[in-house]
Design goal:
heterodimer; A: 4-stranded antiparallel β-sheet; 23% strand; B: Rossmann fold; 6-stranded mixed β-sheet; 37% helix
Chain lengths: 335, 271
Amino acid sequence: MSRVMLEVKELTTKYITRFGEDVYAVDHVSLKVEEGKSLGIAGESGCGKSTLALSLMGYYFAPLHYTSGEIVIDGRTISGMAPDDIRKTILGTEISYIPQCAMDALNPTRKIINFVEDVIYAHKTYITKKEIYDLARERFEILGLPAEVLQKYPVELSGGMKQRTVIAISVILLPLVLIADEPSSALDVTSQKMVIKMLRNLIEKGYIKAMIFITHELPLLYNVTDDIMVMYAGQIVEKGTAKEAVFDPLHPYSKGLMGSIIVPEKGLRGTRLAAIPGVPPNLKNPPAGCRFAERCTYVQRECRMHPIDLREVDDGRAYRCIFTKEQLREAYQNG
Amino acid sequence: MANNWEKTCLSGSGLTKVFGFGSQKCVAVDHVDFNFNEGEIISIVGESGSGKTTLAKMLLGLISITEGEVYFQGKKRDIRTQKKKQEYWKNIQAIFQDPFSSYNIFNKIDAVLLDCIYMRGGRRLPRAKKVELMTEACSFVNLKFEELTNKYPFELSGGQMQRLMIARIFLLKPKILLADEPTSMIDACSRATILDMLMKLRKETGMTLIFITHDIGLAYYVSDSVYIMEHGKIVENGSADKVILYPKEAYTRRLISDVPKIHEVWDLSTV
């Protein structure tokens, strides 16, 4: 049994709108990441992926509010801590976050080295600038970035370079858990590969102990992470290893997602992409039963009546559907 | 060049764009020749900075051409005056990468769609007919006109905006549609919907579709012929099957190897 780096139990967070309505964007999410492992989170826009990423850090600011649940990082419970304590002791050293748009994450009027100084000064006040520079140069070189980058302004770097710089800054204090929120969705395929290689390097060389990778690109997730979790309307609908989730999806929604994969392999041409019809439900007043019922081809009367529980099947696999896995597999085979 | 005049829709010879001069000189597009047939789906593939978007802007007439000529339906394209330009834009339309910045934020959705009707000469139609046309266009892209009317574009989601863009194209019915990375900002699920709609639209109107993308998987899925661009030059072209399954150039092979796959091993060591 390896060490559990990040454990989340029944985490629920909500947004409070300016009209006072509650929107539960993350609804009873539980997950567990072991040392040296990476977890991928897939789902379409607006399903709560990014909110989950923000919630995992334990750092809440309006309109996002913490409701219930527990976040444990390496045996230490961080949920319920004061925001200021979290910023000073957790962010950057225990858990770190890579935003989606690295292009907008860097202040254009400051040099890269200033950002590194900011991160380090927030945690260690007694360090000199020379030491920071040496540390930064060493780390940047290990991660395959030239040391000249440190003296440059963000505008002088290309998109892929900026994203890699942001990653290097995020891991400068060697956090235990790294949360990457769509780090490559704004990049072209070549820069994307460089970013992925860097993240894989980080985890293989042990600079970070665990990673959560969020994206909507399933082929990418399949190649990067060990486990995949599919989210729909704030809930987890499927959990499993990467291979299981891609080649043998159980939940009808994950099945639909797999139908929209585009890869340049023989036999793709001429096949029809299966888009899931309809739109996700409004989370202001979610449906009483299964949240996917409106768009599901296999919907039954029972689905709409009561909330569906996450059904655990053989070792670590889980899905949220009323059917058994044999029934689902048979249904998919018959089309 | 231009041997069969009947079929060629858009072609170019020696198209070049140079930005800046002296030591700042940058050749973005370098003597590009192409020949797009009527009703074909063409993909232009390349990584960032290979000149794809510059080429698209030249085809649209948004920026001047340093050298070379564009031929539209066998004739030299003439867009020297604003009037001629507008005439040309009735035949060629575009969908851009970022749906959020494609709309005039001060115009309501009705105005966006009405503009298209006016462009097709529908200015004097009765109000009811206009509404009917707009409703038809919206239902083509699975949007409800009743919900959209009196709203501003920024009240929609990215996928909805991109679909509204297709509704515009549906009203305009141009001969050529230039789609500049239409799906790179939206998630994989809406991507399938949008590609489906574009295919359906093409089937109905028989227009030429030019896809500009960095995702070679997408190019393989949609297109009949593929042009690969590297540093402003076209390095390889031909039918999609030929170029992507049996690539000749090292650059094409690299682009293909950079895309994550599910049935083959993704080799990370090649970057």
